[in-house]
Design a protein that fits this description.
The chain is an alpha/beta fold. It has a single domain, classed as UDP-N-acetylmuramoyl-L-alanine:D-glutamate ligase (3-Layer(aba) Sandwich), CATH 3.40.1190. Helices cover 33% and strands 19% of the residues. A nine-stranded mixed sheet has the order 7-5-1-11-12-13-14-15-16, with helices on both faces. Strands 3-10-9-2-4 form a five-stranded mixed sheet, with helices on one face. A two-stranded parallel ribbon has the order 6-8. Strand 9 and strand 10 form a beta hairpin. It is an enzyme of class 2 (transferase).
C-alpha cells in the first residue's frame, strides 16, 4: 500500500520489521544536546489607540505604566473588540534567546517558566506558543491559573508610544518546578537578572535553584543583565550571584558601566573577567566584544589587523578558544572585537533582541562543543577542556551576523536560520 509523501526507498510500512523510533519533541537528557533557559514568560502586544483610550484607563502617555491584572484584562478585551491590535510577539530576553538558538541549531532547547493552564484562542499564552519555535520543549513549564505577562505598546496618532505592563503570573515559578535532571544534562543554562526585581516572588528562588543545580553538575551558566537601571539597583546582589554561579555574562555597554563604573567597554570587560569566564558585550554602533580566558600554552595569534584601545594590541590572541579560568594552569585574558556586519542594516526599525541574537550564537557554539565532545571524545579538538568549539574571533563573526539579522527585521526573534550560502560557509568555520 502506497502512502503520500516522499520516500527514498519504500512506499509501505513493513509489518515484519521493528517500527522506527520517531523523533520526539521532549528533551531526553541522556541522548540530546540542548540548552535550558529560565525566563519570565511575557507577550508583547502592539496596538493603535486614541488619546481618549489612554484617559479612559488612567494610563500616563509616553511613560511605562504598571497595571493590575483586572485593568490589563479590560484593556485587552477592548483592544480586541475594537480590532486595534496590529502585532503580537512572544517576548522575554531568555525566551528570545532559546527560540533563536533552536532556529540556528535546528535542535532542541528547554524553556522553564510559567504558562496559563487554560489557553484560549487569542490569549497571551496562545500567541506566545504560536511565536515560539516547535523545537523549544515546553513540557516543563509550570501551569498557572492566570495569564502570563503582557507588555502592551499603545501607539497614539501622533506616534507617541505608551507602555502598559501587566506582570500577570509570570513570576509565580516555584523552585520545586525546576527539574534537576534536565538542568544537569544541558549543554548550558541561561537566565536573566530580571527575577532579582521581585524579592517577594517565587521566581527569584527558582532561578537560584536552577543555578545551583547547574553549578553542582558542572553545566556552564549564562546570565544576561537586563537593564542598566536594574544593575544599579541590585549591583551588590548581582555581583555576589555572578561570583558564586556565573560562567558567561552578557550585557550592553550601559549595563557594563553600571556594573563596573567604567565607561570604556574594553576596560569594563577586562574588569568583569575577574569574576567570570566569558563576557559578551554589545556596544551599539561600535560593534561587539567577546572576551574570556585561555591557557597560555594554548593561545593562538590572530592574522587579523591588530587593534588597540584602552588596552594595547588587545585582540592579539583572538584565534584562541575559550576555556574556564579554573581549568587553566596559566590563564590569560583574550579579547576580540568586531564592527557591525556590513556597517549595520540600512534602516533599523527595532533594536529589541539584537543582544539576545548574539547570545544565541554563542550558546550554539558552546552546545556544538558539548555535542562534538560527546560524539568524539578523543578528537584533537578536546585536548584541553575548552568551553566552546570555535575561536573568539569566529564566534564574534557568527554572533555579529545573527544580530544583523535581528536588526534588519521588525521583530525580536529570528523567523528563519541564516541564508543557505552562509550556512555552508559556517560549516567551514566550525572546523577551524
Amino acid at each position: 500500500m502506497k502512502f503520500p509523501g516522499r520516500r527514498k526507498l519504500k512506499h509501505y510500512f513493513p509489518v515484519s520489521q521493528p517500527k522506527p523510533i520517531l523523533p520526539t519533541s521532549e528533551v531526553r537528557p541522556d541522548k540530546d544536546t540542548y540548552v535550558v533557559g529560565l525566563d519570565e514568560t511575557i507577550v508583547d502586544v502592539v496596538a493603535n489607540v486614541t488619546d481618549a483610550f489612554l484617559i479612559k484607563f488612567g494610563i500616563k502617555k509616553g511613560l511605562s505604566n504598571l497595571v493590575d491584572a483586572d485593568t490589563a484584562a479590560a484593556i485587552f478585551v477592548e483592544l480586541t473588540a475594537e480590532q486595534c491590535i496590529s502585532d503580537h510577539f512572544a517576548g522575554g530576553t531568555i525566551g528570545n534567546t532559546i527560540h533563536n538558538y533552536s532556529v540556528l541549531a535546528d535542535d532542541k532547547s528547554v524553556l522553564l517558566g510559567v504558562m496559563s493552564a487554560n489557553i484560549g484562542l487569542g490569549s497571551p499564552a496562545y500567541h506566545y506558543i504560536c511565536h515560539t519555535s516547535s523545537k523549544v520543549d515546553m513540557n516543563h513549564l509550570q501551569g498557572v491559573a492566570g495569564d502570563i505577562g503582557r507588555g502592551i505598546t499603545l501607539i497614539t496618532p501622533d506616534g507617541e508610544r505608551t507602555f502598559a505592563i501587566a506582570p500577570g503570573d509570570m513570576d509565580e515559578l516555584d523552585a520545586d518546578h525546576i527539574p534537576e535532571s534536565i538542568v544537569a544534562g544541558a549543554a548550558a543554562l541561561v537566565t536573566c537578572a530580571y527575577p532579582l526585581r521581585h524579592q517577594g516572588k517565587p521566581i527569584k528562588q527558582a532561578m537560584i535553584q536552577a543555578l545551583q543545580y547547574a553549578h553542582q553538575n558542572q553545566v556552564p551558566t549564562v546570565l544576561t543583565l537586563g537593564t542598566s537601571h536594574l544593575v544599579e539597583e541590585h549591583r551588590d546582589e548581582l555581583l555576589s550571584l555572578i561570583k558564586q554561579y556565573i560562567n558567561v555574562l552578557a550585557m550592553n555597554e550601559l549595563e557594563a558601566e553600571a556594573l563596573t563604573g567604567l565607561s570604556d567597554p574594553l576596560e569594563a570587560a577586562s574588569e568583569i573577567l575577574n569574576y567570570v569566564d566569558i563576557v559578551l558585550l554589545t556596544a551599539g554602533p561600535e560593534g561587539m566584544y567577546l572576551c574570556g580566558h585561555t591557557e597560555d600554552e594554548m593561545k593562538r595569534e590572530t592574522t587579523n589587523p591588530i587593534k588597540s584601545g584602552r588596552l594595547a594590541d588587545f585582540n592579539r590572541w583572538e584565534f584562541s578558544r575559550p576555556m574556564l579560568r579554573e581549568a587553566c594552569q596559566h590563564p590569560i585574558k583574550v579579547f576580540s572585537h568586531i564592527d557591525p556586519y556590513m556597517g549595520g542594516p540600512e534602516k533599523i526599525r527595532n533594536t529589541n533582541g539584537a543582544g539576545d541574537g548574539a547570545l544565541s550564537a554563542l550558546l550554539h557554539d558552546i552546545s556544538a562543543n558539548h555535542f562534538h565532545k560527546s560524539a568524539m571524545p578523543n578528537s584533537t579538538k578536546h585536548l584541553a577542556p575548552f568551553l566552546a568549539y570555535s575561536s573568539f574571533a569566529q564566534i564574534c563573526k557568527y554572533a555579529n551576523r545573527v544580530s544583523y539579522e535581528i536588526l534588519a527585521q521588525n521583530a525580536s526573534r529570528l523567523s528563519r536560520g541564516l541564508p543557505e550560502r552562509e550556512d555552508s560557509l559556517e560549516e567551514a568555520y566550525w572546523e577551524k
